[in-house]
Write a structure and sequence with these properties.
Elements (H helix, E strand, L loop, with lengths): L1 H25 L9 H46 L29 H15 L4
């Protein structure tokens, strides 16, 4: 990875040097001898260097993303292979041993009360004529 980063940095620095070279070349005393072809050639070289720098940067980013994805896959595979870790209860969290809890009693309603409630419901739901 370090070599790709160094190479990308070198390409970026080289592409940044092209505009200065064009200006220095055009400002020289022999400026009348510079042809448009030479200037266009230098511009094309600069654009190609910029494209290479972008390509290298993209490759570096893709390689880093792939590395992170591979690392995540390895972590998941390891997690699946290991037995689950259950928390161990602390001694302070243990309930005290005491008498067993009483079973909840069933609610009992007297028959007379149920009959009275039933009569009220029937009276409220029957149509009045």
């Amino acid at each position: 990875m370090g070599t790709m980063r160094a190479l990308a940095l070198g390409v970026v620095l080289a592409s940044a040097a092209f505009p200065a070279a064009i200006l220095a070349f055009a400002a020289s005393p022999a400026a009348g001898q510079v042809t448009q072809f030479e200037i266009d050639n230098l511009r094309a070289q600069q654009e190609a260097a910029q494209r290479r720098a972008i390509d290298l940067s993209n490759q570096l980013t893709a390689a880093e993303a792939q590395r992170q994805a591979d690392q995540a896959v390895r972590a998941l595979e390891l997690q699946q292979r290991l037995p689950p870790r259950l928390p161990t209860p602390s001694p302070a969290a243990q309930p005290e041993a005491g008498p067993p809890a009483a079973a909840p009693s069933v609610v009992q309603i007297p028959d007379a009360l149920l009959a009275d409630s039933n009569a009220k419901v029937r009276a409220a739901t029957t149509p009045h004529r």
